[in-house]
Protein backbone atom coordinates (compact mmCIF):
# COMPACT_ATOMS: atom_id res chain seq x y z
CA UNK A 1 0.00 0.00 0.00
CA UNK A 2 1.23 3.47 -0.92
CA UNK A 3 0.74 5.65 2.14
CA UNK A 4 1.59 8.87 0.28
CA UNK A 5 -1.43 8.44 -1.95
CA UNK A 6 -3.71 8.38 1.12
CA UNK A 7 -2.40 11.67 2.52
CA UNK A 8 -4.42 14.84 1.93
CA UNK A 9 -2.66 16.79 -0.87
CA UNK A 10 -2.19 19.93 1.28
CA UNK A 11 -0.52 17.86 4.01
CA UNK A 12 1.71 16.11 1.49
CA UNK A 13 2.89 19.53 0.29
CA UNK A 14 2.93 21.13 3.73
CA UNK A 15 6.15 22.81 4.74
CA UNK A 16 6.28 22.07 8.48
CA UNK A 17 7.19 24.65 11.10
CA UNK A 18 10.80 24.42 12.07
CA UNK A 19 11.06 24.68 15.87
CA UNK A 20 14.22 26.22 17.28
CA UNK A 21 15.12 23.10 19.23
CA UNK A 22 14.96 20.91 16.16
CA UNK A 23 17.64 23.05 14.50
CA UNK A 24 20.09 23.18 17.45
CA UNK A 25 19.96 20.98 20.56
CA UNK A 26 23.01 22.32 22.39
CA UNK A 27 24.86 25.59 22.85
CA UNK A 28 24.08 28.91 24.50
CA UNK A 29 20.58 29.60 23.33
CA UNK A 30 19.65 33.03 22.00
CA UNK A 31 17.20 31.63 19.46
CA UNK A 32 13.83 30.81 21.07
CA UNK A 33 12.99 33.81 23.26
CA UNK A 34 13.03 31.62 26.36
CA UNK A 35 13.70 33.15 29.76
CA UNK A 36 17.49 33.08 30.26
CA UNK A 37 17.12 33.99 33.96
CA UNK A 38 15.41 30.77 34.90
CA UNK A 39 11.92 29.64 35.78
CA UNK A 40 9.39 30.89 38.31
CA UNK A 41 8.81 27.27 39.32
CA UNK A 42 11.65 25.73 41.25
CA UNK A 43 11.53 22.11 40.17
CA UNK A 44 14.90 20.31 40.16
CA UNK A 45 17.35 21.63 37.58
CA UNK A 46 17.04 18.72 35.18
CA UNK A 47 13.49 19.75 34.28
CA UNK A 48 14.86 23.07 32.88
CA UNK A 49 11.37 24.48 32.72
CA UNK A 50 12.51 27.74 31.17
CA UNK A 51 13.56 25.80 28.06
CA UNK A 52 11.29 24.36 25.39
CA UNK A 53 11.15 20.58 25.34
CA UNK A 54 12.71 18.36 22.69
CA UNK A 55 10.26 18.72 19.77
CA UNK A 56 10.62 15.07 18.84
CA UNK A 57 10.57 13.64 22.40
CA UNK A 58 13.44 11.38 21.35
CA UNK A 59 14.18 9.91 24.76
CA UNK A 60 10.53 9.06 25.36
CA UNK A 61 10.14 7.58 21.90
CA UNK A 62 13.19 5.45 22.54
CA UNK A 63 11.75 4.20 25.84
CA UNK A 64 8.38 3.45 24.24
CA UNK A 65 10.08 1.71 21.32
CA UNK A 66 11.88 -0.60 23.74
CA UNK A 67 8.64 -1.29 25.59
CA UNK A 68 6.72 -2.08 22.40
CA UNK A 69 9.59 -3.92 20.69
CA UNK A 70 9.74 -1.64 17.63
CA UNK A 71 12.04 1.04 16.25
CA UNK A 72 11.65 4.62 17.52
CA UNK A 73 10.93 5.50 13.88
CA UNK A 74 7.63 3.66 14.28
CA UNK A 75 6.56 5.67 17.35
CA UNK A 76 4.76 9.00 17.57
CA UNK A 77 4.14 10.59 20.97
CA UNK A 78 1.14 12.79 21.61
CA UNK A 79 -0.53 14.85 24.28
CA UNK A 80 -2.74 11.85 25.09
CA UNK A 81 -4.07 9.54 22.42
CA UNK A 82 -6.85 12.08 21.97
CA UNK A 83 -4.29 14.27 20.18
CA UNK A 84 -3.32 11.37 17.94
CA UNK A 85 -6.98 10.83 16.92
CA UNK A 86 -7.23 14.48 15.99
CA UNK A 87 -4.02 14.50 13.94
CA UNK A 88 -4.90 11.31 12.06
CA UNK A 89 -8.20 12.81 10.94
CA UNK A 90 -6.45 15.99 9.81
CA UNK A 91 -3.82 14.08 7.85
CA UNK A 92 -6.07 11.63 6.03
CA UNK A 93 -9.56 13.14 5.73
CA UNK A 94 -10.15 16.33 3.76
CA UNK A 95 -13.24 18.27 2.71
CA UNK A 96 -15.98 15.95 1.43
CA UNK A 97 -14.24 12.86 2.79
CA UNK A 98 -15.35 10.70 5.70
CA UNK A 99 -14.27 8.45 8.53
CA UNK A 100 -16.08 5.34 9.77
CA UNK A 101 -16.70 4.52 13.40
CA UNK A 102 -17.71 1.01 14.44
CA UNK A 103 -20.07 1.50 17.36
CA UNK A 104 -20.80 1.43 20.24
CA UNK A 105 -17.34 2.71 21.01
CA UNK A 106 -15.25 5.53 22.47
CA UNK A 107 -16.94 8.87 21.82
CA UNK A 108 -13.90 10.97 20.90
CA UNK A 109 -13.55 9.61 17.34
CA UNK A 110 -16.86 11.26 16.47
CA UNK A 111 -16.12 14.47 18.37
CA UNK A 112 -12.75 14.81 16.60
CA UNK A 113 -14.36 14.19 13.20
CA UNK A 114 -17.20 16.63 13.91
CA UNK A 115 -14.70 19.26 15.03
CA UNK A 116 -12.75 18.86 11.82
CA UNK A 117 -15.95 19.08 9.74
CA UNK A 118 -15.51 15.48 8.59
CA UNK A 119 -18.58 13.27 8.34
CA UNK A 120 -18.34 10.22 10.63
CA UNK A 121 -20.43 7.33 9.40
CA UNK A 122 -21.60 4.88 12.03
CA UNK A 123 -21.37 1.13 11.43
CA UNK A 124 -22.58 -1.31 14.09
CA UNK A 125 -20.60 -4.00 15.87
CA UNK A 126 -22.52 -7.30 15.82
CA UNK A 127 -24.52 -8.70 18.75
CA UNK A 128 -21.34 -10.04 20.38
CA UNK A 129 -19.75 -6.60 19.87
CA UNK A 130 -17.47 -8.10 17.23
CA UNK A 131 -16.49 -6.72 13.87
CA UNK A 132 -18.50 -7.89 10.87
CA UNK A 133 -15.74 -7.35 8.33
CA UNK A 134 -17.86 -8.12 5.27
CA UNK A 135 -20.55 -5.62 6.34
CA UNK A 136 -18.02 -2.92 7.20
CA UNK A 137 -16.16 -3.33 3.91
CA UNK A 138 -19.46 -3.26 2.01
CA UNK A 139 -20.40 0.03 3.67
CA UNK A 140 -17.17 2.00 3.30
CA UNK A 141 -17.09 3.94 0.06
CA UNK A 142 -13.92 5.36 -1.44
CA UNK A 143 -14.75 8.58 0.42
CA UNK A 144 -14.04 6.86 3.76
CA UNK A 145 -10.38 7.42 4.66
CA UNK A 146 -10.13 5.99 8.18
CA UNK A 147 -11.93 3.22 10.03
CA UNK A 148 -11.70 3.55 13.81
CA UNK A 149 -11.67 0.32 15.81
CA UNK A 150 -11.14 -0.05 19.52
CA UNK A 151 -9.77 -3.24 21.09
CA UNK A 152 -10.44 -3.92 23.93
CA UNK A 153 -13.46 -1.85 23.05
CA UNK A 154 -14.69 0.93 25.27
CA UNK A 155 -17.40 0.61 26.64
CA UNK A 156 -18.12 -3.05 25.82
CA UNK A 157 -14.81 -4.39 27.18
CA UNK A 158 -14.19 -7.12 24.59
CA UNK A 159 -11.20 -7.62 22.32
CA UNK A 160 -11.84 -7.63 18.59
CA UNK A 161 -10.62 -10.77 16.81
CA UNK A 162 -7.11 -10.31 15.40
CA UNK A 163 -8.02 -12.17 12.22
CA UNK A 164 -10.86 -9.69 11.59
CA UNK A 165 -8.56 -6.71 12.07
CA UNK A 166 -6.07 -8.27 9.65
CA UNK A 167 -8.84 -8.80 7.10
CA UNK A 168 -9.88 -5.15 7.54
CA UNK A 169 -6.32 -4.00 6.88
CA UNK A 170 -6.11 -6.16 3.76
CA UNK A 171 -9.56 -5.31 2.41
CA UNK A 172 -9.69 -1.57 3.10
CA UNK A 173 -7.89 1.01 0.95
CA UNK A 174 -7.54 3.48 3.78
CA UNK A 175 -6.19 3.66 7.30
CA UNK A 176 -7.29 1.21 9.98
CA UNK A 177 -6.83 2.69 13.45
CA UNK A 178 -6.90 0.24 16.33
CA UNK A 179 -7.17 2.00 19.67
CA UNK A 180 -5.51 -0.21 22.28
CA UNK A 181 -5.87 2.10 25.28
CA UNK A 182 -6.73 -0.92 27.47
CA UNK A 183 -4.54 -3.61 25.91
CA UNK A 184 -2.38 -4.13 29.00
CA UNK A 185 -5.44 -5.55 30.80
CA UNK A 186 -6.23 -8.01 28.00
CA UNK A 187 -5.41 -11.65 27.50
CA UNK A 188 -4.06 -11.03 23.97
CA UNK A 189 -0.91 -9.16 23.00
CA UNK A 190 -0.88 -5.76 21.33
CA UNK A 191 -1.07 -5.64 17.54
CA UNK A 192 1.61 -2.94 17.53
CA UNK A 193 4.23 -5.14 15.91
CA UNK A 194 1.89 -5.96 13.04
CA UNK A 195 2.41 -2.48 11.63
CA UNK A 196 5.58 -3.79 9.91
CA UNK A 197 3.41 -5.99 7.72
CA UNK A 198 0.21 -3.93 7.53
CA UNK A 199 1.27 -0.52 6.25
CA UNK A 200 -2.20 0.99 6.73
CA UNK A 201 -2.51 -0.08 10.36
CA UNK A 202 -2.11 2.51 13.13
CA UNK A 203 -2.11 1.19 16.69
CA UNK A 204 -2.82 3.78 19.37
CA UNK A 205 -1.76 3.24 22.94
CA UNK A 206 -1.54 5.33 26.06
CA UNK A 207 0.05 5.66 29.48
CA UNK A 208 -3.32 6.84 30.87
CA UNK A 209 -4.70 3.46 31.89
CA UNK A 210 -2.46 0.57 33.01
CA UNK A 211 0.43 2.92 33.78
CA UNK A 212 -1.77 5.12 35.97
CA UNK A 213 -0.62 8.31 34.26
CA UNK A 214 -3.80 9.89 32.89
CA UNK A 215 -2.73 13.16 34.50
CA UNK A 216 0.41 13.63 32.40
CA UNK A 217 -1.28 13.11 29.00
CA UNK A 218 1.00 10.75 27.10
CA UNK A 219 -0.50 8.77 24.26
CA UNK A 220 1.36 7.21 21.37
CA UNK A 221 0.87 5.75 17.95
CA UNK A 222 2.75 2.80 16.50
CA UNK A 223 2.69 2.80 12.71
CA UNK A 224 4.67 2.57 9.50
CA UNK A 225 7.51 5.09 9.33
CA UNK A 226 5.77 7.05 6.55
CA UNK A 227 2.69 7.65 8.71
CA UNK A 228 4.86 8.68 11.66
CA UNK A 229 6.62 11.22 9.42
CA UNK A 230 3.30 12.84 8.57
CA UNK A 231 2.16 12.89 12.21
CA UNK A 232 5.41 14.69 13.01
CA UNK A 233 4.85 17.10 10.17
CA UNK A 234 1.45 18.31 11.40
CA UNK A 235 1.83 18.18 15.18
CA UNK A 236 2.31 21.41 17.12
CA UNK A 237 6.03 22.06 17.65
CA UNK A 238 6.34 21.11 21.32
CA UNK A 239 3.32 18.87 21.88
CA UNK A 240 4.79 16.79 24.72
CA UNK A 241 6.01 18.89 27.63
CA UNK A 242 9.18 18.40 29.65
CA UNK A 243 7.52 17.25 32.87
CA UNK A 244 5.33 14.65 31.21
CA UNK A 245 8.20 13.38 29.10
CA UNK A 246 10.51 12.97 32.06
CA UNK A 247 7.88 11.24 34.20
CA UNK A 248 6.89 8.93 31.34
CA UNK A 249 10.51 7.86 30.78
CA UNK A 250 10.82 7.24 34.50
CA UNK A 251 7.64 5.13 34.50
CA UNK A 252 8.83 3.08 31.53
CA UNK A 253 12.02 2.29 33.40
CA UNK A 254 9.89 0.79 36.18
CA UNK A 255 7.68 -1.55 34.20
CA UNK A 256 7.26 -3.83 37.22
CA UNK A 257 5.16 -1.13 38.98
CA UNK A 258 2.76 -1.17 36.07
CA UNK A 259 2.72 -4.97 36.13
CA UNK A 260 1.72 -4.99 39.80
CA UNK A 261 -1.17 -2.58 39.26
CA UNK A 262 -2.23 -4.37 36.10
CA UNK A 263 -2.49 -7.67 37.97
CA UNK A 264 -4.41 -6.07 40.84
CA UNK A 265 -6.89 -4.55 38.40
CA UNK A 266 -7.40 -7.88 36.64
CA UNK A 267 -7.91 -9.74 39.95
CA UNK A 268 -10.38 -7.14 41.12
CA UNK A 269 -12.17 -7.24 37.77
CA UNK A 270 -12.81 -10.95 38.24
CA UNK A 271 -14.04 -10.52 41.83
CA UNK A 272 -16.24 -7.54 41.03
CA UNK A 273 -17.78 -9.37 38.07
CA UNK A 274 -18.75 -12.27 40.35
CA UNK A 275 -20.21 -9.90 42.96
CA UNK A 276 -22.27 -7.98 40.41
CA UNK A 277 -23.42 -11.25 38.92
CA UNK A 278 -24.65 -12.34 42.33
CA UNK A 279 -26.69 -9.11 42.52
CA UNK A 280 -28.46 -10.10 39.30
CA UNK A 281 -26.46 -8.04 36.80
CA UNK A 282 -25.60 -9.36 33.36
CA UNK A 283 -21.85 -8.81 33.26
CA UNK A 284 -20.26 -8.67 29.82
CA UNK A 285 -16.86 -10.35 29.53
CA UNK A 286 -14.15 -7.73 29.97
CA UNK A 287 -10.54 -7.51 28.83
CA UNK A 288 -10.16 -4.00 30.21
CA UNK A 289 -10.18 -2.22 33.59
CA UNK A 290 -13.93 -1.74 33.52
CA UNK A 291 -17.08 -3.81 33.33
CA UNK A 292 -20.11 -3.22 31.16
CA UNK A 293 -23.11 -4.47 33.09
CA UNK A 294 -26.81 -4.63 32.39
CA UNK A 295 -29.76 -4.45 34.78
CA UNK A 296 -33.36 -3.40 34.13
CA UNK A 297 -33.87 0.27 35.06
CA UNK A 298 -30.21 0.78 36.04
CA UNK A 299 -30.06 4.37 34.71
CA UNK A 300 -32.27 5.54 37.57
CA UNK A 301 -30.19 3.62 40.09
CA UNK A 302 -27.00 5.18 38.66
CA UNK A 303 -28.49 8.62 39.16
CA UNK A 304 -29.35 7.98 42.82
CA UNK A 305 -25.95 6.38 43.41
CA UNK A 306 -24.37 9.64 42.25
CA UNK A 307 -26.72 12.06 43.99
CA UNK A 308 -27.26 10.25 47.29
CA UNK A 309 -24.10 8.18 47.75
CA UNK A 310 -21.48 10.05 45.75
CA UNK A 311 -20.72 6.86 43.80
CA UNK A 312 -20.21 7.66 40.17
CA UNK A 313 -20.61 5.15 37.37
CA UNK A 314 -21.07 5.84 33.66
CA UNK A 315 -24.58 5.45 32.32
CA UNK A 316 -24.92 4.15 28.74
CA UNK A 317 -28.70 3.69 28.87
CA UNK A 318 -29.24 6.08 25.95
CA UNK A 319 -26.65 4.47 23.67
CA UNK A 320 -28.01 2.18 20.93
CA UNK A 321 -27.32 -1.50 21.73
CA UNK A 322 -26.55 -0.59 25.36
CA UNK A 323 -30.02 -0.06 26.84
CA UNK A 324 -30.01 -0.61 30.64
CA UNK A 325 -26.19 -0.70 30.66
CA UNK A 326 -23.71 1.11 32.85
CA UNK A 327 -19.92 0.98 32.76
CA UNK A 328 -18.08 0.52 36.03
CA UNK A 329 -14.35 1.15 36.31
CA UNK A 330 -12.67 -1.51 38.44
CA UNK A 331 -11.75 0.05 41.76
CA UNK A 332 -9.63 -1.11 44.68
CA UNK A 333 -11.03 -3.90 46.91
CA UNK A 334 -12.32 -1.29 49.41
CA UNK A 335 -13.95 0.81 46.68
CA UNK A 336 -15.55 -2.24 45.06
CA UNK A 337 -16.96 -3.40 48.40
CA UNK A 338 -18.43 0.04 48.98
CA UNK A 339 -20.00 -0.08 45.50
CA UNK A 340 -21.35 -3.59 46.12
CA UNK A 341 -22.88 -2.75 49.51
CA UNK A 342 -24.42 0.49 48.25
CA UNK A 343 -25.81 -1.16 45.12
CA UNK A 344 -27.39 -3.84 47.25
CA UNK A 345 -29.37 -1.14 49.06
CA UNK A 346 -30.32 0.82 45.95
CA UNK A 347 -31.43 -1.95 43.58
C1 LIG B 1 -10.64 3.83 24.02
C2 LIG B 1 -9.96 5.05 24.52
N1 LIG B 1 -9.04 5.65 23.77
C3 LIG B 1 -8.39 6.74 24.18
C4 LIG B 1 -8.67 7.29 25.40
C5 LIG B 1 -7.97 8.54 25.81
O1 LIG B 1 -6.66 8.28 26.05
P1 LIG B 1 -5.63 9.42 26.43
O2 LIG B 1 -5.78 9.66 27.89
O3 LIG B 1 -4.31 8.86 26.05
O4 LIG B 1 -6.00 10.63 25.60
C6 LIG B 1 -9.62 6.72 26.23
C7 LIG B 1 -9.93 7.32 27.53
O5 LIG B 1 -10.85 6.99 28.23
C8 LIG B 1 -10.29 5.57 25.77
O6 LIG B 1 -11.23 4.97 26.51
Automatic annotation (TrEMBL):
<dbReference type="GO" id="GO:0000105">
    <property type="term" value="P:L-histidine biosynthetic process"/>
</dbReference>
<keyword id="KW-0028">Amino-acid biosynthesis</keyword>
<keyword id="KW-0368">Histidine biosynthesis</keyword>
<dbReference type="Pfam" id="PF00155">
    <property type="entry name" value="Aminotran_1_2"/>
</dbReference>
<dbReference type="InterPro" id="IPR001917">
    <property type="entry name" value="Aminotrans_II_pyridoxalP_BS"/>
</dbReference>
<dbReference type="InterPro" id="IPR015421">
    <property type="entry name" value="PyrdxlP-dep_Trfase_major"/>
</dbReference>
<keyword id="KW-0808">Transferase</keyword>
<comment type="subunit">
    <text>Homodimer.</text>
</comment>
<feature type="modified residue" description="N6-(pyridoxal phosphate)lysine">
    <location>
        <position position="209"/>
    </location>
</feature>
<keyword id="KW-0663">Pyridoxal phosphate</keyword>
<dbReference type="InterPro" id="IPR015422">
    <property type="entry name" value="PyrdxlP-dep_Trfase_small"/>
</dbReference>
<comment type="pathway">
    <text>Amino-acid biosynthesis; L-histidine biosynthesis; L-histidine from 5-phospho-alpha-D-ribose 1-diphosphate: step 7/9.</text>
</comment>
<protein>
    <recommendedName>
        <fullName>Histidinol-phosphate aminotransferase</fullName>
        <ecNumber>2.6.1.9</ecNumber>
    </recommendedName>
</protein>
<dbReference type="InterPro" id="IPR015424">
    <property type="entry name" value="PyrdxlP-dep_Trfase"/>
</dbReference>
<dbReference type="InterPro" id="IPR005861">
    <property type="entry name" value="HisP_aminotrans"/>
</dbReference>
<comment type="similarity">
    <text>Belongs to the class-II pyridoxal-phosphate-dependent aminotransferase family. Histidinol-phosphate aminotransferase subfamily.</text>
</comment>
<dbReference type="GO" id="GO:0030170">
    <property type="term" value="F:pyridoxal phosphate binding"/>
</dbReference>
<dbReference type="InterPro" id="IPR004839">
    <property type="entry name" value="Aminotransferase_I/II_large"/>
</dbReference>
<dbReference type="GO" id="GO:0004400">
    <property type="term" value="F:histidinol-phosphate transaminase activity"/>
</dbReference>
<keyword id="KW-0032">Aminotransferase</keyword>
<feature type="domain" description="Aminotransferase class I/classII large">
    <location>
        <begin position="49"/>
        <end position="337"/>
    </location>
</feature>
